[in-house]
Amino acid sequence: MAIRRVLLIAFLALLFGGARNAFAHAVLISASPEDGAILATAPSEVRLVFNEPISPIAVQVLDRNGHSLLGAQDVRVADAEILIRLPARMSDGIYLVSYRIVSLDSHVVGGSIEFTVGAAGAAGSAPMSPAAAIPADKGWRLAFYLDELLFYGASFAALGGMLFRLLLMGDAPVIERPVRRQIEMATLLGVPAALLGIGLDGALFRAGPLSTLFEAETWNLGFHSSFGASALFLAGGPALLGIAARLESHWAEWIAGLGIAAAVAAFALTGHAATAPPRWLTAPSVGVHVLMVGFWAGSLPPLLLALKREDRQLAASRLFAFSRWGVPAVSLLLASGIALATVQLGGFSAFFATNYGLVLLGKLLAVAMLVSLALVNRLRLTPALALGKPGAAVALRYSIRLELLLFAVIVLLALELGNLVPPRSLNEAAEAKRTANVGAPSAIMSAGDYTAIITVTPARAGFNLTRIWFLGPDRRLFDPQSVELSLAEPADHIEPIRRQPLRVATGIYRLMGAEISLPGTWQFRLDARIGDFEERSFSAEIEIR
Amino acid sequence: MTKLTIAAIAAGIFLTALPAFAHVTLETAESPAGGFYKAVLRVPHGCAGSPTIGLRVQIPEGVIEARPMPKPGWTITMKVKPLDPPYVDDGLKITTAVSEIDWSGGKLPDDYYDEFVFRARLPSRPGTMLYFPVIQICASGEEHWIQIPAEGKTADDYDNPAPGVKLTSAPPEND
Question: Which residue has the higher pLDDT, A274 or A179?
Answer without folding.
Answer: A179
